């Protein structure tokens, strides 16, 4: 009896939803990671060479299992299919009949040649939600152009926002637009599944990376350009030089004091009560107009004591503040461990010995449906035989269709 | 007849879903912006002083309508309610009976004192999905501590990732964690609504900012620390100094060449075919181990020609590349205008004269359900009377309950 049968109520909000995922690297796998953690049965359909991220995502402990691959693919099942071969198409066709969602980031021509357009799949399964994560929306002049995270960061204004602060274009130190648009796609897929409850039929959805990234940037930074041609762009509270973790005597601290109550408490906390009536700082509007001065006051004050002293003083004054974490100190944070998001995974290796690794878990809580037990990312093709058996293929057919050695692409 | 009745099929995937939103600033409004654009009826419940973002989000053209407020609140309706008053509670109680979703970022004690816990609301309406966006997950040591974007950026490793690249901690030049976790919350809400289709009842969901931000950072950057205590953290492909928009003779360009085919094509394109057989660069694994050298080759090559020349040459060789946009040049991008994400909104002001503003639209496409007509962000309390009338209140009650001057908080 599986864990989910023992606790039927903790199978996740998406229990019963089947997702076919033909994507690789980050944007698609991030979308389906969320769905998998919420209980969807995500079938990762890997090409004969495997998801590129198996090799691109950092030095692996086992072949084909890079750290980034592990973290973006937990809770999924993997089957290797060559979608260009008759056998691959046959299995894909059967899978599509059983699925609620199909996700790809192929361009229209590739979908066409593989028989995987919305029209083709919905003819077999009218309830299927067909999600294409594209680089650029269909119909625009760049439609069909290749898109990768850094290209989208450079084109969408993400790098330009860094230039506003740093004086030169830089990328965000994440696969930011892939990662972000993956979350956007998971949301759009669930919205379309809800729409299906009303209409009775699935639909095709397109989630374009560039447009999503640009909208993300612009809704924060259109600023005065919203109202007038040539108007100032860039949120002044974010682009001002002192908007940064503030140096203390022994480290860094982050402080936030946006409301009038918080700002007055902050001036008391730093022993500058006279600033409470300074016309530059008396209201939200005044502090916004004088944001450089306001943030400079904060910077000067924080340099005078240690981080722990300031955290304590500011807490006493009800001013929100927290220390700054390095990547390594973050792992010792009691909240992160306490909430179960960061965990030591223990698994047996092929020799029966226990190995541990650091793993991540879904951060959100669902009081009724819960989340299912966490499972490690799949080896290449690990679940091929199991999935083929579920589709009703007998042993001979399974050998014919899925006889791939699980280590071939690793 | 309204536009949505004329085109019943284009009401959005979430048509028929009602959302009560008591949040302000960015994280909650971002969550409900997505739901509103997908057709949900989002009722923005504003306190007597209005959403802080009306004043904090940049210099407004009209009082209380800052640019950032405008962009994060389009397609919503606004009602002003003092939830601490008996009148406010009365209206809130009736609204809760009609709603599918309730969203807040109040701490548990505030929800308790206002009678807005999941237990209280589900007693009246068992199908309600009750979403709390918290700073820190309940149960951990920081639960209940105040959380703001910059504090979460500093604590969750976002600022630390910038330190890896820049040598000192910096914030991402966005309200990144608010903005991101808002999208996460919209996704979690839709997942819970799907769960409700199966279970028949709503549930409480918690979306903690810190845990979500830390998971975002760590699934990219745990790297070797996944496997061993003290192991290296930070994706080397992202943290390497030359991972940035590359200087050309007249600007910047972004290039991506990750697969073997792309890497070989890139070496041809820059006139260095001998590098195709250089052992440092012959495979994904080799280029990952020598990422500094690989990226340094790219940097050196790009300096030799103009952006337009390289874009043309790289396109001919099938190497993904795009120019870098500044914030202002982004607005002239033909793809962004062509796909309709950036539009000139024309509206009549109170004197009947036309005013224009730059507006944003939902970036995703839904072939069946579409998205509803876009509406501008609401003035403070703009829809109070209309919403009270829908709840069945007569004119006298509406005056008693909602007689707030729409400009009071602006």
Protein model, in words:
Chains A, B: This is Formyl-CoA transferase. Two copies of one chain form a homodimer. The first copy, chain A, is α/β, with parallel strands linked by helices and 410 residues long. Chain A has two domains: 3-217 and 345-402, Crotonobetainyl-coa:carnitine coa-transferase, domain 1 (Rossmann fold); 246-323, formyl-coa transferase, domain 3, CATH 3.30.1540.10. The first copy, chain A, contains 20 helices and twelve strands. A six-stranded parallel β-sheet of chain A has the order 3-2-1-4-5-6, sandwiched between helices. A three-stranded antiparallel β-sheet of chain A has the order 7-8-9, with helices on one face. In chain A, helix 2 links the parallel strand 1 and strand 2 (41-46). Chain A is globular. The two termini of chain A are 32 Å apart. The model of chain A is unreliable at 1-7 and 405-410 (pLDDT under 50). Chains A and B meet through helix 4, helix 8, helix 9, helix 10 and strand 6 of A and helix 4, helix 8, helix 9, helix 10 and strand 6 of B. Strand 12 (365-366) of chain A pairs antiparallel with strand 6 (204-208) of chain B.
Helix and strand layout, with pairings?
The structure is a homodimer of 410-residue chains.
Chain A lengths: L2 H4 L11 E4 L5 H11 L3 E6 L6 H4 L10 H6 L4 E4 L5 H13 L2 E4 L3 H6 L4 H7 L4 E6 L14 H7 L2 H9 L9 H24 L4 E5 H13 L14 H4 L6 E2 L4 E4 L4 H10 L14 H6 L1 H12 L4 H10 L4 E3 L3 H4 L3 H5 L3 E7 L5 E7 L4 E2 L17 H7 L4 H8 L8
